[in-house]
Design brief:
With 362 residues, chain A is mainly β. Helices cover 3% and strands 43% of the residues of chain A. Chain B has a four-stranded mixed β-sheet with strand order 3-2-1-4, with helices on one face. The chains are: A mainly beta (362), B alpha+beta (59). At the A-B interface, strand 17 and strand 18 of A face strand 3 of B.
């Protein structure tokens, strides 16, 4: 059989990355921090990975990873925002934004800031009790530029698919680094500081008044719930089908920014250490994958340590802290009840439910 | 919100490149002195405010 040669012209002239969806965890599948957080009033990362909730005194919210998804879409999870304390009259500077910050080095192929810049298309599924106009925004954090597009939720409590194409921007190159160069912002509420101008639908220097004109106030009633899933941001002016990747791949991409080392279970060994003195030991814990930056470390629960003498007895609860954190590993030191022997090995283990949290979020 | 920021002492010849931060809710986090770490960026902004000081414990 003769082999058929694929002509170069048949291959699209597009430098498509391995992951064409710029957004990480767009299907809301990974939630290392937990599946539900109540009483949200301040900015933070709460449930599903990579998505930050930016809020300035605009209601109180419960955020959760939910199983309400568009029928037949293939998605298993969505992100739900539930208003538990309303604010029907936002102050000028109030806002509620669901956002993802994107590393500049991941989006160089958008060629932003050059004559070859390409448009960017956003697609997602959304459902809301509150119908009306909502705003999606791309914010260039390196050059303080932005572009906003409005979309309409037409039917209450009904899943709708939205597609928005943002124009190319030939001004303002994005840094080829680990910083938060590009931010996808989905507005859910805004005060007059962000709504008093004319919606800026072409890339321009950021003017707050033009960023969220027309945005409904999702915080105006405790009856309001909002769901979203299948968020995809991609190069070009066409929305392709949501890029499905395995849970493991998705988790690995999230772990560049946040890692939860779950040591739940009494006597679950986390790592080995070497005693430096009777009340100190040092150990190294390699990270699960290289993080974006040297991470912040925090812990929950209780940790203990095994000594290496004949009885293998455990010391009391220890204070676990980090003497050094790097992108590849964490150096632990600890203080015990003075039962260790310098030079001997010691095992660090959880005294029940315990976690080590590493954050290198943007 | 940060309540207290302090250096932590090393062990023997091991020095530290981490700051211990006590948050308003009394949770403690350890933040590396890495310009790319957003918590360290926040500490630098916090330290600019009159009355806020990083306590030096002789790291």
């Amino acid at each position: 059989m003769a082999l058929t040669r694929i002509q170069p012209a048949a291959i699209a002239d597009v430098r498509e990355p391995n992951f064409r969806n710029i957004v990480i965890n767009g299907d809301m599948a990974v939630a290392q921090r937990g599946t539900s957080t109540a009483s949200i009033t301040t900015e933070n990362y709460y449930t599903v990975d990579r998505f930050n909730t930016f809020i300035t005194t605009l209601g109180t919210w419960t955020q959760s990873q939910d199983t309400d998804v568009p029928t037949g879409s293939g998605f298993a999870t969505s992100l739900k925002m539930d208003c538990t304390s309303a604010d029907a009259s936002p102050a000028a500077g109030d806002r509620l934004v669901f956002q993802q910050k994107i590393e500049g080095q991941n989006v160089q192929y958008l060629k932003k800031g050059t004559s070859s810049a390409v448009p960017i298309t956003l697609s997602f599924w959304v459902k809301s009790v509150l119908t009306g106009t909502y705003i999606a925004e791309l914010y260039d954090n390196d050059n303080t530029r932005q572009v906003s597009k409005s979309y309409t939720i037409s039917s209450a409590s009904t899943w709708e698919k939205k597609t928005i194409t943002f124009p190319a921007d030939t001004t303002g190159a994005l840094g080829n680094d680990t910083g938060d160069s590009l931010i996808l912002q989905l507005w859910l509420g805004a005060g007059s500081t962000y709504t008093s101008g004319s919606l800026n639908t072409s890339w321009a220097a950021s003017t707050n008044a033009n960023r969220a004109v027309g945005q409904v106030n999702l915080a105006n009633s405790t009856s309001n719930n909002f769901w979203i899933t299948g968020i995809q941001l991609e190069a070009g002016s066409v929305a392709t089908d949501f890029e499905v990747i395995s849970f493991g791949q998705n988790l690995l991409r999230c772990q560049r920014y946040f890692q939860k080392i779950d040591a739940t279970g009494t006597n679950t060994i986390i790592t080995t250490m070497q005693a430096y003195a009777s009340d100190n030991a040092v150990g190294d814990l390699p990270t699960l994958t290289e993080l974006r930056a040297n991470p912040t470390l925090s812990t929950t629960g209780t940790f203990n340590a095994w000594t290496s003498d004949a009885s293998n007895k455990a010391t009391g609860a220890i204070a676990l802290y980090s003497a050094s954190t790097t992108q590849q590993g964490i150096l632990f030191t600890r203080a015990s009840e003075g039962t260790l022997s310098a030079g001997n090995a010691s095992g660090l283990y959880a005294g029940g439910s315990a976690t080590i949290l590493l954050s290198a979020e943007l | 919100m940060m309540k207290k920021v302090e250096t932590i002492t090393g062990i023997g010849s091991l020095t530290t490149d981490v700051l211990k931060v006590t948050l308003e809710n009394d949770n403690i986090i350890y933040v590396p002195k890495d310009e790319a770490n957003t918590d360290y960026q926040a500490i630098q902004e916090w330290a600019k405010i009159e009355g806020n000081n990083i306590i030096d414990n002789g790291a």
